[in-house]
Amino acid sequence: MADNPATGHSRDDPPDVGRPDAGRPDAGLAMAAGGVSRALQSMTVISQADGVALMLADGHGRLRAVGGSSAEGLELQYAEQSEQSGPAHESVAADRPVAVADLRRHGGAGYERLARRAASVRAVLSIPVHVEGTATGALNFYRRTPCRWTSDHIAVGEHLAETAADLLVGLAAAAREHRER
Fold this sequence. Notes:
GAF-like_dom_sf; GAF; GAF domain-containing protein
């Protein structure tokens, strides 16, 4: 029996049943992007940061911007991607959280360029995202004002990075399943 009489669909139907783009090869990618976007929005609320953004390593180990909960987050990610330096890079390389209280006052030429390119972002907490035991990316929490990141911020960030990893593994499995259909 249909759970939704208007559409005739049941909650047991696959999520893309009845969607106009369900047959398109990129429909699964669009659904995954939407899932990541919603997750980053939720993580922003949970963490009480001004925003959250995700970077993942590509096939050559270079960090790439995946998404952000706001335009500022994407600016930060694209700046880090272009510069190939910053908190996400340090976090993945050292496999530990990296807390930057104020991008404008943090030392180093790379940080000066990040501060100019992502001017609205002042503080960043970068947490490595682990998939199968390897740091494959970073979850960046950011604030528009300088911030001293506390051990509580870091603990919440680490929990949310685990959640992000679980989401990514689930999306990869769903994409494989979608391709095999």
